[in-house]
Each structure stands twice: as C-alpha cells, then as structure tokens.
Amino acid sequence: MTTVLVTLAVLAVAAAAVLGYVRLRDRRRSPGDEDAAAVRAARAERHRRAAEREHAQHDGWNRGGHGFTG
Q1: How far apart are the first and last CA of the chain?
Q2: What sign results for the dihedral spanned by CA atoms 17, 20, 24, 25?
Q3: What's the CA gap between 26 and 69, in Å, rounded?
C-alpha cells in the first residue's frame, strides 16, 4: 500500500513540475515574438485569395445583372 501511495505522490509531483514549466515557458513568450512583416504578408495573401474567390464567383455577369456577357 505504501508503494502505491509513494508512486502516486511521485507522479503528482512530476505532473505539477511539467505544468509549472509549461506555464512559465508560455508566460515568457510575448505576442511580439512573431515577425511583423510575415504576419502582414500572410494577412495580405489571405485577403488577395478571398478577393480572387469573390471575383471568380461573379466573373462573366455584367454589373447590371442582365445576364452572362461572355
């Protein structure tokens, strides 16, 4: 019985140590660590692709809504 309690206590301490380390590591990371230029480029690429999809859905129809123009 004592062996089981010691094993559970060791596992609990190990789990607490891992959780503490992960929390400390994540707290040290700041949101500013990301490359600002890369974030802007990715956002611009998402907007460009969305615009292309929107254009493809409306391609071929005239602005007045009078049918397919070819």
Answers
A1: 83
A2: positive
A3: 56
Triad 11, 27, 8: Cα angle to 5°: 5
DSSP 20-49: HHHHHHHHH--GGGS-HHHHHHHHHHHHHH
The 10s digit of each residue's pLDDT in 8-60 is 999 999 999 999 999 998 887 766 666 788 888 999 999 999 888 776 555 55
C-beta of residue 60 within 8 angstroms of C-beta of residue 69: yes
Provide the pLDDT for residue 6. Answer: 96
